[in-house]
Amino acid sequence: ETGVTQTPRHLVMGMTNKKSLKCEQHLGHNAMYWYKQSAKKPLELMFVYNFKEQTENNSVPSRFSPECPNSSHLFLHLHTLQPEDSALYLCASSQVQGGQGSYEQYFGPGTRLTVT
Amino acid sequence: DAKTTQPTSMDCAEGRAANLPCNHSTISGNEYVYWYRQIHSQGPQYIIHGLKNNETNEMASLIITEDRKSSTLILPHATLRDTAVYYCIVRLGRAGSYQLTFGKGTKLSVIP
User: Is the preceding peptide bond at A8 cis, omega within 30 degrees of 0?
Assistant: First the structure.
């Protein structure tokens, strides 16, 4: 595996379900990100993890719960979602040095989530 | 981060150069210009970035005006696989927030 992988690629879940999205980066990076892309809207940053510590949370509802067990893996736990949460969820990674951001972020292919 | 303005859409004939403009009139001295693209239903892909000087890599060239208020991404020989939404982003280089603020971008259609 190379780059950034995400599983599953497609997910359909009911509003009462609990599911998790998984992201894995094979680039040796130390920062990981979750983005949300709704239909006809720009990408929105949700969470940032730097050295496994959450450094940014852009006012995301608590029904989205991130987990970063190590610098290569990132999860997004989902529970009691709403239909408007249907979107493409993208994971990205980058190399951070000295606590500062990097020039480039590398994105995974995304998980297409549909909440019914 | 400075705001950017891009045309909503552009067409380009296959094999010709695609020139995608971006205005960033409020850019500050330490902000970089980044370009990403997103092919339909895939994650965004980094293309190139620059501060003041023109830059070139295997994918594209970036031309930044002397006053840095605008830039142009050039795909020298567009192919059908270059059809995508292209995002121009202005932000601090290594320092500051990790956030990339994506706008609506330019939808480039490469026509056979």
Answer: yes
Residue with tokens 């150069």: B17
Contacts of B101 in chain A (CB under 8 A): 42, 45
Which helix (H) or strand (E) covers residue A5, if one does? strand A4-7
Residue in chain B nearest A91 by alpha carbon: B43
pLDDT (tens digit per residue) in A58-112: 789 999 999 999 989 999 999 999 999 999 999 999 887 665 556 688 999 999 9
How far, in Å, CA of A55 to CA of A51, rounded?
Answer: 9
Taking only the tens place, the pLDDT of each residue in A105-116 is 899 999 999 999
Dump the DSSP string for A54-102.
EEEE-S--TTEEEEEEETTEEEEEEES--GGG-EEEEEEEE--BTTB--
Q: Does B76 touch chain A (CB under 8 A)?
A: no
Which residues 76-95 of A are in CB contact (within 8 Å) with B? Answer: 88, 90-92, 94
Q: B25: Cβ–Cβ under 8 A, 6 or more apart, which residues?
A: B69, B70
For A10-64, the pLDDT digits (tens) are: 999 998 889 999 999 999 998 899 999 998 788 899 998 887 677 777 789 999 9
Q: What is the nearest CA distance from B94 to chain A, expressed in angstroms? A: 5
Contact call for B46 and A104, based on CB within 8 A: yes
